[in-house]
Amino acid sequence: MFSSLLFVLVLSFDFEIKNTLGHNVFENVAYGKYASQSTELVGGQFVASKAVNGVFNDFTHTDLEKNPWIRIDLGRNYTVHEVEVFGRKDCCVERLHDLDIKVGNDLHEMHLCGHFSGSCTRAGERITVFCPFNTAGRYVEIRIVEGWNNILSVAEVLVWGHF
């Protein structure tokens, strides 16, 4: 008689994600940390902290500008393995495009973790960038680097790393 065991992993994006089976040695070191952005849409409801609150149904929103960015202060130095950026689920997928993701200990000396070329094509899309081996820093920055009139709108940013 043959018996099999089936494991099913269901992730709901309405709760905090700190560890997953695929990241058993890494932790989402961005969760709940201080975040800032280059500008904020008038009204104050699309603040940068929404990118690190573990909720995938809300989002950040900058004003229209050249090279908008969002920056996360991890609070201390971490080795960063991977950065995941999630787009909005409701609309505006084309706003998440041509991203440089940088990591560093000093805001004036950031190092490229990776680049995403092109534009998202579907709502809620995930962009994953794997950093070079031994990439470390306190700050993580996501910046649109192409075009003159851009809005950066992010649902969530996960930074997988360890101390």
Distance between the termini: 47 Å
**Structural class of the helices, strands and pairings?**
mainly beta
CATH superfamily: Galactose-binding domain-like
Kindly give the count of domains.
1
What is the oligomer described by this structure?
A: single chain
> What is the level-2 CATH architecture name?
Sandwich
Q: According to CATH, what is the class?
A: Mainly Beta
Notable features of this structure?
Jelly Rolls, disordered N terminus, 163 residues, mainly beta, globular
Provide a descriptive summary of the structure in words.
There is one protein chain. The chain is globular. The chain is built from no helices and 8 strands. Strands 1, 2, 3, 4, 5, 6, 7 and 8 form an 8-stranded antiparallel β-sheet that branches. Mean pLDDT is 88; it is low at 1-16. The chain is mostly beta strands and 163 residues long. The N and C termini lie far apart (47 Å). The chain has a single domain (25-162), classed as Jelly Rolls (Sandwich).
Quick description:
By secondary structure, the protein is mainly β.
List the helices and strands and how they pair.
Layout: E1 27-28, E2 34-37, E3 69-86, E4 97-106, E5 109-119, E6 126-130, E7 136-144, E8 156-162
Antiparallel strand pairs: 1-8, 2-3, 3-6, 3-7, 3-8, 4-5, 4-7
